[in-house]
Amino acid sequence: MTARRHRVVWTEAAAQDLVQIAIHVADESPATARKLIERLRTRASRLSAFPGRGRVVPELAGAGVLAYREIISRPYRILYRRQDRNVIIAAVIDGRRDLEDVLFERLVR
After folding, report:
1. What DSSP assignment string belongs to 41-64?
2. Model confidence over 18-75: pLDDT tens digits?
3. Is the pTM of this model over 0.85?
4. Among the residues of 5-92, which ranges form H helices?
5. Are 92 and 14 in contact (CB under 8 A)?
């Protein structure tokens, strides 16, 4: 018997994160940018089989928000949440940045 898979859904914000990462990295090397984006997409797609594999986002857990999890693909953090049979990719953030700063920037956009 095979396990039911979840559908991985990218939010507009997370898709835009990938675009911005690609633009930034492509300034130095377009080939590296393509490989990086493919690696990030592959890591996220694996959540379809194992949606609980990531850890609860520590900064959010401290505020009582336990719905969001993350997987790491150094130096990036892929933040997601489960919703029914979906895995919603909410953001792809450079792990060297402060998460609170990034979230604040998104709120004031």
Report:
1. HHHHHGGGT-TT-SEE-HHHHTTT
2. 999 999 999 999 999 999 999 999 999 999 999 999 999 999 999 999 999 999 999 9
3. yes
4. 12-26, 30-45, 58-61
5. yes
**Per-domain boundaries in the chain:** 7-108
Q: What are phi and psi of 86, to 5 degrees?
A: -115, 150
Q: Indicate the length of the chain as a whole number.
A: 109
Q: How many whole angstroms separate alpha carbon 87 and alpha carbon 89?
A: 6
Q: Does domain 7-108 have CATH number 3.30.2310.20?
A: yes
